[in-house]
Design goal:
Its cofactor is Zn(2+). This protein is an alpha+beta fold and 123 residues long. The protein is 24% helix and 32% strand. Strands 1-2-3-4 form a four-stranded antiparallel sheet, with helices on one face. The mean pLDDT is 96.
């Protein structure tokens, strides 16, 4: 089993609906994101997954979240744009755009700060 990973970041605002505290008010974060993909075998070049392909697929997702109010994003109209839901959303989008018989998303970690974050995985 191979694990290929990359990290990136984005900036956005959000608020947590019905939250009993300060996070109910609009505020922003410089989110950090780590994506781990798993591959069962290597391709003919000896790679599990080309970093270029992983970064390109992730960039499309991150660009859609960057510098916007996440509460207005279609994915978060009915649920709060919490770190948990953001991690699950990025995972699901990667699963749609970057999965094959050899590799698949394994884990997405989203950090609101250097000290606080959450990971989502389906395994």
């Amino acid at each position: 089993m191979y694990e290929v990973f990359t990290t990136t970041h984005f900036s956005s605002g959000h608020h947590l609906r019905n939250y009993p505290g300060n996070c109910e008010k609009p505020h922003g974060h410089n989110w950090k994101v780590k994506v781990i993909m798993r591959a069962d075998e290597l391709d003919e070049l000896g790679m599990a997954l080309d970093f270029r392909d992983l970064k390109a697929a992730l960039k499309v997702i991150i660009d859609d979240l960057d510098h916007r109010d996440l509460n207005e994003h279609p994915a978060f109209q009915q649920e709060n744009p919490s770190s948990e839901n953001i991690a699950r959303y990025i995972f699901a989008e990667l699963k749609k755009s970057l999965s094959s018989d050899r590799y698949r998303p394994h884990k997405v970690t989203v950090l609101e700060t250097d000290a606080c974050g959450v990971s989502y995985s389906e395994e």
